[in-house]
Specification:
The complex is a heterodimer. By secondary structure, chain A is of the alpha+beta class. Chain A is built from 13 helices and twelve strands. The longest helix of chain B has 16 residues, at 102-117. The chains are: A alpha+beta, B alpha+beta. The A-B interface holds A 1, 3-6, 26, 28-30, 33-34, 37, 46, 48, 50, 74, 77-78, 83-84, 87, 90-91, 94-95, 97-101, 103-104, 233-235, 327 and B 1, 17-19, 21, 40-42, 45, 48, 54-57, 60-62, 64-65, 108, 111-112, 115, 118-123, 125, 127-128, 140-146. Chain B: InterPro entries: 2Fe-2S-bd, 2Fe-2S-bd_dom_sf, 2Fe-2S_ferredoxin-like_sf, 2Fe-2S_ferredoxin-type, 2Fe2S_fd_BS, Aldehyde_Oxdr_Iron-Sulfur, Beta-grasp_dom_sf.
Chain lengths: 329, 168
């Protein structure tokens, strides 16, 4: 690890000011320290935000919930309101990492965790995300865990968070303290595709500190499902995951939100798939049409060819579950 | 950087480089070598300690971030002449071979049983309610952050089930 200076932030404004001057924010440290040990990230200065008062989960006036950026993944998953009204979020969190890691991992840190691409982790290899302009070895190398949607010639990495997939399906918003004051961004605008700037995971600007995640009022009478497909039953990242929140009208889908992990540089959501499903019964033809729509532009790179049929089957299985036996709110 | 750490009830004044992880502080600076380093990257759980009542990977946190915190390590859970219930159960059930993962397993299991008491659900819980049964599947899922290269898993699960069964 490279030497660094360490400071504790007094409040979000001073954390933002330190970050604007080049300090790297540390929260749970479970991703940042891993990468610092490997010198994939080598900050000169850390600003520790863990003593800021951002550990509360509170109800908002519009019937939603405000989750402080420092709420641990464990506390969030176990929170009674989240379990009851936003089951897909509890399930996604519980499907991630391990008991020990969830105790340390924070809501803000989880959103900003970096990709698990093998080349990104290996400083002896070219990688456009770690060293812009050096090339992407995943394109023709080992790419079993890589993206099939929204890729670019510069980068085919996926975003590894389970929590973010559920937050995308729930239409969460991110509250940010930045150099110009505070603002909120919807999940749809928080992440980005790699394009020709894969070094940018998200749309945060220099000096931005995430202070909270806001959930809208819960969808009433809905069924929630989070399904994660991975190489072992626990303590492994998703190859494909699907978060679903469905409202039924008899045996027809009234409203549905679907978000996908493991497929892209960001949690993937496709309004056209949801439009196609709205008002329909889940016949085999409808299931096929939904999967065709989702994967129409899918492109695989050899090692991840299996993800196209896997995404197809997982989507269908989740739709069946969401419309019948999924967790009720 | 100066950091005050209360470990197993004793307060230590640590003076160490900011890069020092909590695990290295325990083992190299304070001589508490019960906590083990397996991977140093959060992947094995050998370094598990309990901080302010919660189990964490001590390899993935900086000692200087824990100023004022209360830390329990395997040395604090029990000693050969006064073992904790889980330590005794691991001996009785032969819950190890080489023993390298054992301190992490026992620290992890100690805190995990408290998580169950608090009604925390897990990935394998049928519903998200608070009434959790300590099945083998629940124990395996909740202990998945602790790897055992000797694969003593069946005996580890049996030891935890015995102690957890008495408790809950
Ligand atoms: C072995 C292992 C297995 C894992 N498995 C999974 C898994 O299956 N699923 C999954 O989703 N995750 C998994 N994870 C990743 C884990 O969820 C993340 O490491 C964790 O959520 C990061 O949170 P943190 O608070 O520790 O972040 P940190 O490490 O402190 O920070 C991560 C990044 O976020 C930035 N940051 C932190 N807080 C803020 C803020 N408030 N505002 C702006 N920027 C901020 C930091 O600067 C840093 O770049 C795994 C990790 C490990 C080590
Ligand atoms: S896929 Fe992205 S992160 Fe992986 S090597 Fe290519 S540029 Fe780097
Ligand atoms: S040494 Fe900390 S998890 Fe392996
Ligand atoms: S007893 Fe050898 S690693 Fe678990």
């Amino acid at each position: 690890m490279k030497p660094f200076d360490y400071d504790r932030a007094k409040d979000a404004t001073s954390a933002s000011a330190a970050a604007a001057k080049g300090a790297t924010i540390i929260a749970g440290g479970t991703n940042l320290l891993d990468l610092m040990k490997l010198e994939v990230m080598a900050p000169d200065r850390l600003i520790d935000i863990t003593r800021l008062p951002l550990k509360e989960i509170t109800r908002t006036s519009d019937g939603g919930v405000r989750i402080g950026a420092l709420v641990s993944n464990s506390d969030l998953a176990a929170d009674p309101t989240i379990r009851t009204n936003y089951a897909v979020l509890s399930r996604a969190l519980l499907a991630g990492a391990s008991g020990q890691l969830r105790n340390k991992a924070t809501t803000g840190g989880n959103l900003c965790q970096r990709t698990r691409c093998y080349y990104f982790y290996d400083t002896d290899m070219p990688c456009n995300k770690r060293a812009p302009g050096s090339g992407c070895h995943a394109l023709e190398g080992f790419n079993r865990i890589h993206a099939i949607l929204g890729t670019s010639e510069a980068c085919i990495a996926t975003h590894p968070s389970d929590m973010a997939v559920a937050l995308r399906a729930l239409d969460a918003k991110i509250e940010i303290e930045g150099s110009g004051g505070s603002r909120t961004i919807g999940m749809e605008g928080f992440y980005r595709l790699p394009g020709d700037r894969p070094e940018l995971d998200n749309t945060l600007q220099s000096g931005d500190v995430i202070t909270a995640v806001m959930l809208p009022a819960p969808v009433t009478d809905a069924r929630h499902v989070y399904r994660k497909v991975r190489d072992r039953a626990s303590y492994a990242f998703a190859l494909v995951s699907v978060a679903a929140v469905a409202q039924m009208d008899g045996d027809k889908i009234k409203e549905i939100a679907l978000a996908f992990g493991g497929l892209a540089h960001m949690p993937w959501r496709d309004g056209a798939v949801e439009d196609l499903l709205r008002g329909e019964r889940l016949t085999p033809a409808v299931l096929d049409a939904a999967a065709d729509k989702l994967l129409a532009d899918a492109k695989s790179f050899g090692g991840n060819d299996f993800k196209i049929p896997l995404a197809r089957r997982t989507l269908k299985a989740v739709l069946r579950e969401a419309c019948t036996t999924g967790e009720r709110t | 950087m100066k950091t005050a750490l209360t470990i197993n009830g004793t307060t230590y004044q640590l003076e160490a480089d900011t890069r020092t992880t909590l695990l290295d502080a325990l083992r190299n600076h304070l001589g508490l070598t019960g906590s083990k380093k397996g991977c140093d990257h959060g992947q094995c759980g050998a370094c598990t300690v309990i901080v302010n009542g919660r189990r964490i990977n001590s390899c993935l946190t900086l000692a200087c971030m824990h100023d004022g915190d209360e830390i329990t390590t395997i040395e604090g859970l029990g000693q050969p002449d006064a073992m904790s219930a889980l330590q005794e159960a691991f001996v009785r059930h032969d819950g190890y071979q080489c023993g390298y993962c054992t301190p992490g397993q026992i620290c992890s299991a100690t805190a995990m049983l408290e998580e169950i008491k608090a009604g925390w659900p897990s990935n394998v819980s049928d519903d998200l309610g608070t009434d959790i049964r300590l099945t083998a599947a629940e124990i395996s899922e909740r202990m998945s952050g602790n790897l055992c290269r000797c694969a003593a898993y069946p005996n580890i699960v049996a030891a935890i089930a015995e102690v957890g069964g008495d408790k809950s």
